[in-house]
Amino acid sequence: MNKEMLYEGKAKKVYKTDAAGEYVVYFKDDATAFNGVKKDTLAEKGILNNSISSILFELLAKEGVESHFIKKLSEREMLVKAVEIVQLEVIVRNISAGSMSKRLGIEEGIVFQEPIFELCYKNDALGDPLINDDHAVAIGLATREEIAQIREQTMKINTLLKEFFKKAGLKLVDFKLEFGRYDGKVILADEISPDTCRLWDIETNEKMDKDRFRRDLGNVMEGYKKVLQRLEEK
Ligand code: C5P
């Protein structure tokens, strides 16, 4: 496989392949938080996130959600469709936590009647600011039609992911998705992992996600391993 690196992000690298229309995503062990201010290497994080994302993309595909995922190639590599990433971070919140709790001064753990849909401008230099649909259209990040498609798919994905995680004994508190343009439409891309989701144990509310790293709670990879084990068992 001819491997020319196209892009290196905080947690992944993307390589070109010989096949037109396909990329390889490589999952690194690097962990960052607070827009890169806090950094560390977490042994085997890339392996766990590649496995967890692959399982979730496969489960979503069975339920009719198209994504960039083609197949898992190796421990750390995933073969994907070569999408053009929409520069939006799409966040869904089912339970209050994180930046929303801080910004609005509300405690964590409040279960919302309806999921909250947020858009952020994917821009490290600006710290990924929260924006609305009008901003996204005005600065050319996506068209109204694309945002409508993203919203519809995101709500379906939230319903399905909540169900998958519930069966694995986990509450899906919130998560971030990214989408890409492919073949005239927008499809789910990037990853779905404990780096990008808040997952709490259904009984104890123990955090099983990247908040263990962000908040120095310890045993970060133990949480990720439990998420993978529970998804594999269900
Ligand atoms: O920090 P905040 O509360 O806004 O994060 C909401 C959700 O989006 C969390 O699950 C977090 O892991 C995810 N997120 C992410 N990448 C970012 C920002 C947030 O995966 N750059």
Automatic annotation (TrEMBL):
It comes from the Bacteria. It catalyses: 5-amino-1-(5-phospho-D-ribosyl)imidazole-4-carboxylate + L-aspartate + ATP = (2S)-2-[5-amino-1-(5-phospho-beta-D-ribosyl)imidazole-4-carboxamido]succinate + ADP + phosphate + 2 H(+). GO terms for molecular function: ATP binding; phosphoribosylaminoimidazolesuccinocarboxamide synthase activity. The keyword Ligase applies. Gene3D superfamilies: ATP-grasp fold, B domain, Phosphorylase Kinase, domain 1. This is Phosphoribosylaminoimidazole-succinocarboxamide synthase. Its EC number is 6.3.2.6. GO terms for biological process: 'de novo' IMP biosynthetic process; cobalamin biosynthetic process. Coiled coil: none annotated. Pathway: Purine metabolism; IMP biosynthesis via de novo pathway; 5-amino-1-(5-phospho-D-ribosyl)imidazole-4-carboxamide from 5-amino-1-(5-phospho-D-ribosyl)imidazole-4-carboxylate: step 1/2. Belongs to the SAICAR synthetase family. Residues 6-230 form the SAICAR synthetase/ADE2 N-terminal domain. The keyword Transmembrane does not apply. Keywords: ATP-binding, Ligase, Nucleotide-binding, Purine biosynthesis. Pfam families: SAICAR_synt. InterPro entries: SAICAR_synt/ADE2_N, SAICAR_synt_PurC, SAICAR_synth, SAICAR_synthetase, SAICAR_synthetase_CS.
